[in-house]
């Protein structure tokens, strides 16, 4: 994925993410039913723009960095297909939380 992040650089306060698939198996190998799989919209940050600008022209850095795991809203973002992978572009202020 690092190659994609270098070719596609978001502008301003945009954040490019790849949504993570929920686990369908436990660590012991037991398959989970669809109802037990969490519906969290978790994603990994692939690339980040330089940040938004204030009226003075100063740059405000984004709140997340490349490699962070973030929580996304249920709807929103712009879907982009790059090299057969589905990536999403969000504004920095649309991201709900950073997961640690």
From TrEMBL:
<comment type="similarity">
    <text>Belongs to the GroES chaperonin family.</text>
</comment>
<dbReference type="Pfam" id="PF00166">
    <property type="entry name" value="Cpn10"/>
</dbReference>
<dbReference type="InterPro" id="IPR018369">
    <property type="entry name" value="Chaprnonin_Cpn10_CS"/>
</dbReference>
<keyword id="KW-0143">Chaperone</keyword>
<dbReference type="GO" id="GO:0046872">
    <property type="term" value="F:metal ion binding"/>
</dbReference>
<dbReference type="InterPro" id="IPR011032">
    <property type="entry name" value="GroES-like_sf"/>
</dbReference>
<dbReference type="GO" id="GO:0051082">
    <property type="term" value="F:unfolded protein binding"/>
</dbReference>
<dbReference type="InterPro" id="IPR037124">
    <property type="entry name" value="Chaperonin_GroES_sf"/>
</dbReference>
<dbReference type="GO" id="GO:0005759">
    <property type="term" value="C:mitochondrial matrix"/>
</dbReference>
<dbReference type="GO" id="GO:0051087">
    <property type="term" value="F:protein-folding chaperone binding"/>
</dbReference>
<dbReference type="GO" id="GO:0044183">
    <property type="term" value="F:protein folding chaperone"/>
</dbReference>
<protein>
    <submittedName>
        <fullName>Chaperonin GroES</fullName>
    </submittedName>
</protein>
<dbReference type="InterPro" id="IPR020818">
    <property type="entry name" value="Chaperonin_GroES"/>
</dbReference>
<dbReference type="GO" id="GO:0005524">
    <property type="term" value="F:ATP binding"/>
</dbReference>
């Amino acid at each position: 994925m690092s190659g994609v992040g270098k070719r596609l650089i978001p502008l301003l306060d945009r954040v490019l993410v790849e949504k993570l698939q929920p686990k369908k198996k436990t660590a012991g190998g037991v398959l989970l039913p669809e109802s037990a799989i969490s519906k969290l919209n978790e994603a990994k940050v692939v690339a980040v723009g330089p940040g938004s600008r204030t009226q003075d022209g100063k740059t405000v850095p984004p709140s997340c960095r490349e490699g962070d795991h973030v929580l996304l809203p249920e709807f929103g973002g712009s879907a982009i297909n790059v090299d057969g992978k589905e990536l999403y572009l969000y504004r920095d202020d649309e991201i709900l939380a950073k997961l640690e």
